[in-house]
Amino acid sequence: MTNIGISGAMGRMGMQLVRLVQADPALKLVAALEYKGHEAIGRDVGLEHGSGAAGVKLAAEMPGGVDVLVDFSTPDGTARHLEACMAAGTAIVIGTTGIEDLRQKIEEAEKQIAILASPNMSVGVNLLFSVAAQIARRLGSEYDIEIIEAHHRFKKDAPSGTALKIAQEIAAATGRALEKDAVFGRHGKPLDRAPGEIGMHAVRGGDIVGEHIVMYAALGERVELKHVAQSRETFARGALRAAKHLHGKKPGLYAMADVLAQED
User: Fold this and answer.
1) Domain at 2-117+232-262, CATH from 3.40.50.150, 3.40.50.720, 1.10.10.10, 3.40.50.2300
2) Cα dihedral 21, 27, 33, 34 in deg (nearest 10)
3) Which residues are within 8 A (CB) of 90 and not within 5 positions of it... i.e. 6 or more apart?
4) Which residues are catalytic?
5) pTM of the model
6) pLDDT tens column, 107-116
7) In the CATH scheme, what is the code of domain 123-229?
8) Which residue from 139, 122, 119 is spatially nearest to 214, judged by alpha carbons?
């Protein structure tokens, strides 16, 4: 049994996580966190989401007894939760996006606790990271690479962390330098495409959960990889799979690739 805490428990991802933890006999919900002043503080988080009484009241501070905290909050919230987890010796799964500025804090924390951080918790997307890099390496420099991602109108960052991770994996596999070779959109750019570029394009609209396309285009043919998230449940399931993997692990920084590798 793994005792689970959920931060950002009243958000869209929090709702999915609460429901799935309640339904999983290998997991026990022991903490549900939100920011101080949230109107639902002190109420049963399961009743708030309509998934049935969870026996856990929404709180602003993490209680004791949490084996793994699953964090889908904000960068500021994640920073606070890292501090709390270090103090308690609690492992943490981080699914919060836009946490690039927390790299140093994560490096400090991984010396004390087990951390799994991923810009996308989907199992399919994490396989795509590896496959996209392998295809780029095998196809070679004759194929132009473009990454197109689409998300809902409320997303705060662009391009998505997932698109950036795909680009990073491709760059590492093909000897590119992403800071030099990434091109974000083409408005006002020279029309000629430079060799080695990785084009990145963001679409925002409606309630799109998440779509990513990696396009490899040469003269005469085109290869495409595509992943479509049909609901946020896929991210929640992946995060809880990661939490089970992280329970009892030694301090260090883990990735979804570690979860998948152990299950081979």
Assistant:
1) 3.40.50.720
2) -20
3) 5, 62, 66, 67, 68, 69, 84, 113
4) 151, 155
5) 0.82
6) 999 999 999 9
7) 3.30.360.10
8) 139
